[in-house]
């Protein structure tokens, strides 16, 4: 006897054949094509094709051949050993809606020219019991480490993206800069535009402070958390907008480029002594609104090369101070 099932929100927009692979893996491609041709599989009462897209809430008619399909028994294989350095090793927090990763420095978030390994290409390893591929919510530069959000459902992805769009999120970065800003805290307002002529395929893409009409408004809050003489400063930065390389360009515009950021600081950002010549920029924490009205708050530990610099300079890597406390509202008279 045929049955009818309803397309779930997590399956919205996927192809018919992929929906069957996801929920009825015992149904072979040949059997599915035969049932579709004969009109025995129907979508909202209408004939469907393998390439059609399903929508949340639609009704799928399933004939007995689908309901009772079984897969041949296969010998069980031993569970594969989790490779060192896998994304599963980098999970800071996980629930049924979201995964928060501690992205290592040097691993790109998405693919590009010459890149064979990146977070987006490794997300299949984080499906776990859900069987659905997670989705990136935002990006980090390749050499920036720290908190990276990954949604486990389509609804979570859209909800978190809306929170970022409407600035219902606070992302705090830690950076080690050469020199010391001339004030303890402040706001950097400087529009940014892309500079051309920096390598093929955008691999050496550079941004610059610009007053051109096509420049995009950019705003970053910053606070000096500690100093080591006049040579180095530990700076917390909170980008209010999300432009490419925003924090790197804005801190360099103060005359205090990030250590290891040779793109925006030239040779001045070379580390001294045991301080590594690697980018010292880390997505330390995120506080973001969830679709259900609660908040997600996660903190990532410093990567090894920055932890070593913090120790050498006498900074506290476990500092829990809030560099951007809520502003007090003026009392009405």
Tell me about this structure.
With 333 residues, this protein is an alpha+beta fold. It folds into two domains: 3-67, RNA-binding S4 domain (Structural Genomics Hypothetical 15.5 Kd Protein In mrcA-pckA Intergenic Region, Chain A); 87-313, Pseudouridine synthase. 17% of the residues lie in helices and 26% in strands. The chain is built from seven helices and 16 strands. The chain has helices at 16-23, 29-37, 64-67, 154-165, 246-253, 262-265, 304-313; strands at 3-6, 42-43, 46-47, 59-62, 91-94, 98-103, 135-136, 145-151, 169-178, 185-189, 192-195, 206-209, 219-228, 232-239, 281-289, 295-299. The strands form three sheets. Strands 5, 6, 7, 8, 9, 10, 13, 14, 15 and 16 form a ten-stranded mixed beta sheet that branches. Strand 13 and strand 14 form a beta hairpin. The termini are far apart. Residues 74-84 have low confidence and may be disordered.
CATH C-level of the largest domain: Alpha Beta
- Radius of gyration over C-alpha positions, nearest whole angstrom: 25 Å
Q: Within the CATH hierarchy, at the fold level, what is the topology of the largest domain?
A: Pseudouridine synthase
Order of helices and strands: EHHEEEHEEEEHEEEEEEHHEEH
Structural class: alpha+beta
How many strands, which pairing sense, and closed or not: the largest β-sheet?
10 strands, mixed
Shape descriptor reads: elongated
Low-confidence stretches: 74-84
CATH architecture of the largest domain: 2-Layer Sandwich
The beta-strand count equals 16
CATH homology superfamily of the largest domain = Pseudouridine synthase
- Helicity range: 10-25%
**N- to C-terminal separation?**
74 Å
Strand content: 25-35%
Mean pLDDT: 88
Whole-number count of domains: 2
Total helical segments? 7
């Amino acid at each position: 006897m045929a049955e009818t099932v309803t397309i779930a929100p997590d399956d919205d927009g996927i192809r018919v054949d992929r929906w069957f692979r996801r929920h009825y893996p015992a149904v072979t491609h040949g059997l599915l094509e035969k049932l579709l041709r004969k009109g025995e599989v129907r979508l909202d009462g209408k004939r469907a094709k393998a390439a059609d897209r399903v929508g949340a809430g639609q009704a799928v008619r399933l004939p007995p051949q689908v309901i009772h399909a079984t897969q041949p028994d296969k010998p069980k294989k031993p569970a594969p050993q989790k490779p060192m350095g896998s994304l599963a090793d980098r999970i800071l927090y996980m629930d049924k809606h979201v995964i928060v990763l501690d992205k290592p420095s040097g691993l790109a978030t998405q693919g590009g020219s010459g890149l064979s390994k990146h977070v987006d290409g490794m997300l299949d390893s984080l499906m776990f019991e859900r069987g659905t591929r997670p989705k990136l919510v935002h990006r980090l530069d390749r050499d920036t480490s720290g908190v990276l959000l990954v949604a486990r459902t389509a609804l979570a992805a859209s909800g978190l993206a809306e929170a970022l769009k409407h600035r219902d999120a606070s992302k705090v970065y830690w950076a080690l800069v050469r020199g010391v800003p001339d004030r303890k805290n402040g706001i950097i307002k400087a529009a940014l535009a892309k500079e051309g002529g920096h390598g093929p395929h955008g691999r050496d893409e550079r941004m610059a402070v610009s007053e051109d009409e096509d420049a995009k408004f950019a705003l970053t809050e910053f606070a000096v958390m500690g100093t080591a003489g006049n040579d180095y400063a530990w700076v917390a930065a909170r980008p209010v907008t999300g432009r490419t390389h925003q924090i790197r360009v804005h801190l360099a515009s103060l005359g205090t480029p990030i250590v290891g950021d040779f793109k925006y600081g030239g040779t001045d950002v070379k580390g001294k002594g045991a301080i590594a010549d690697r980018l010292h920029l880390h997505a330390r924490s995120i506080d973001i609104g969830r679709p259900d009205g609660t908040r997600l708050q996660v903190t990532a530990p410093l990567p090894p090369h920055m932890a070593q610099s913090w120790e050498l300079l006498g900074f506290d890597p476990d500092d829990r101070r809030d560099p951007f406390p809520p502003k007090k509202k003026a009392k009405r008279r």
